[in-house]
Each structure stands twice: as C-alpha cells, then as structure tokens.
Amino acid sequence: MAFESLSGRLQNVFSKLRGKGKVSEEDVNEAMREVRLALLEADVNFKVVKDFVSKVKEKSIGKEVMNSFTPGMVIIDIVNKELTELMGGSQAKLAKSNKPPTVIMMAGLQGAGKTTTSAKLAKLLQKGNHRPLLVAADIYRPAAIKQLQVLGEQIKAPVFSLGDQTSPVEIARQAVQHAKDNGLDYVIIDTAGRLHIDEELMEELKQIHSVVSPDEVLLVVDAMTGQDAVNVADSFNKQLALTGVVLTKLDGDSRGGAALSVKAVTGCPIKFAALGEKIDALEPFHPERMASRILGMGDMLSLIEKAQSNIDTEKAKEMERKMRNAEFTFDDFLEQMDQVKKLGPIDQILEMLPGMNKAKGMKDLKVDDKQMGRVEAIVHSMTKNEKQQPEIINHNRRKRIATGSGTSVAEVNRLIKQFDEMRKMMKQFSGMMGGGGKGAKNAMKQLKGMGGKGGGMKFPFR
Asked: What residue stretches are annotated with the SRP54-type proteins GTP-binding domain (predicted)?
C-alpha cells in the first residue's frame, strides 16, 4: 500500500499532539524529531527533509498556534499544507497543443514500465474522447515493439511501427505526420531505455526531441527505487528539460520517498501515478489528495471520480430500488461485485476512506482477486432458482455448489449466511424509509447487531 509505513508513523506522532489542550515548544520539537525520522526512513531526500521540518517548525511555534483552542489540529493542518507544497502544490495537467496532434515523448531507464505506461496513458486519453497514436520507437529491447502492439490491440489504439531497422528519429518523425494525416490528436512516443544513463541514450533522445518538438517530455520512474528514482529524474532533467514525471509501482511503495522528493529536487511536477498493473491503473497525480491520504484523512474526491467514471448510473438506480424493496438476489450480488471491481483493488478503495486505515480490522484486511474469484465461483455454481431464492439451498444443494465451485461447504455456508444478513439489513432500511422514527431505530439496532459477536460484515473467506 502506498506510503503505508510513513502514514502510520506520522499518524502516531499527530495522535499524541491532537489529544493535548496546550502544545509547548518542546512538544513541537519532539513531534518534529519524529517527523524527521519518519521521512528519512521513507527514503526522502535529506535536504528535502531538513527544509520541510524547518518550515513546519517555524509555522508551528507561532503565537496563533500556541494560543489556539486546538493547537494539535492546527499543526496537522500546517503539515498537510507543507506536504501538499512539497509534492507540487496542485495538479500539473497534461499540456495540449493549439494545433493537433499533441506530442508526448516518454523517457526513462529500462524496467521502469515505460511501454506499459505509454499504453495506460493512451487509455486515459481515450476516456476523454481523444484519439491517441502509440509509437514504437524502442528498436533495441527484444519484443518491445510487439509488446506495444499487443497493448494497443487491447485498448483499441493504433500503433505506429516501422520495425527495428529504421532509426528511432525517423520513426518519430513519420509517426507525427501519420497522426496529422489521420486526424489523431495525441502522439505518444515510446522511446528506448537503457540499464543506466549513457551518452548514446541521451543523444538519441535529444535528436528525437529536436525533430518532433514534443509538447510533453515525461520521465517514467519506478517509485520503489526511492532516491535512485530521484537521481535518475535529476540527471534526465539536466539534459532533456523534462516537463513532468510519471511514478510507476506507487501502490507497492510503502515508503514514498520518490513521490515526496522528486518535485523538490528536480523542479519537475509529478503528473501521473500508476497504482496497479491493470491497463486503467493510471491516475492524474493530485498533491493535495495524496497528502490527505498520507495523514489518514482519506481521499473522497478521487473515490467519487472513480465511481462517476466507472459505475453505470442506471444500474445503480435499479439496484437501489431492489434493495429498497428487498428484492436483492445473488444475481444482483454478482452485478454489485462487478461494479466494485471496476473501481480497482479493494484495499486502494479503503485507503481513500477517511480513518479506514486506523479502523479496527481494516489495517490487516487483504482482499485479492482470488478471494473475489471464489465468491463468484460459488454463485455461478448455483442454479437460476437458487440465485433467486437462496432459502431453498439445503445441505445437499450446498454440497453440490461447493463441489462445482471447487470450494468447501463451510465457505458456501459462510457466503449464504452473510448474504442473508445483508438482505435482513436491507429490509430494516426499507422499513426505515416508510416507518418513521421506529423504523430508523430498528435499522440502527440491526446495524449494531451486525457489528456484535461476528465482528460485523466481513469479506467472504477473510
């Protein structure tokens, strides 16, 4: 989970401050020592840490903070604002050419995920009704061209290639002309990487740059390499004048040093972050939202945007009607699972909810695709009547469903029990809708009951 260790450390520091009625200068100094250690352990650049702590400390020992009714909360707000500034202040949007196509040049070392990120960016642009062209200009890495072509087919985006015998400079030049001739409004050039920065790589990139005059030069770096990623960004920027950085594998980086250092060290904004392997797992980078996540305040805006772009509104309305009328079936349950999966991994969704990382039991919650797959297998092994009327599923039917789904009877029992509890809760809410105060009390009672001995609604097979 992104920033997991840093987030935990910072939240512990601020929970101590939050509980104090008055905060002394010594309290601030002690908290800043902890913050400094947390950031250094997160592999944040030493100079960046020093400047950050100095700014926060200076603002935190002012009279208006010390005399505040809630000094702990004021200091947390200062840290939140400084973290946001550290990562760029506000979202750095993708440049757009006045005269199409907009040319984006992707650069980076081998293994950073440049080719996959190029396709992810094309997919993101397609969502905005753009027509991107992917350009296979990496003629050195074996199968690089084929990889881009496969990804292009997957997202139904055209891929321009002249094979591996034509120079990358000529490929880039012809690709831009091809885009103009065919009404394509974005050109994404997947350039070659090397295992390390060398003169040959830089010279080739400079030549491509001079021929196509890109509107964006995006450096793709692996967030998990920490300070190495920042050093790579700094070296590229000095020779190529980068316009932005794309951080890949941010979901696997529990420290977050690269994200917190790269803007301060290079001056280049982080424009996108990849939070997973799926083709649509690329998000615009919002510094203020990321700072909020780090401090455990959640990121409801990103969650709402995900829901708006991925969930079918009409289906959601119909589902709400069924829930209200207690007509929810296992078929609907599968439909709901499908809608949730479109939002991305469950642990990433929970990360966006305020306070969820500190909620009891949520910290260790792991829901993977295999778990979800077993639930789906159980439901798919039911007959049409069983999905519509779960109450008819007796012991023999449960044994058959378990055999058909490759699961155990205990797992089938657990899923049916949880489904039954969910339907009961929906009935209570239905009563609440039309039952006034009494109905509302019943609904709240039911919710409390579901958090009783069983520990509340759990994901199946947890």
From this structure: 101-296
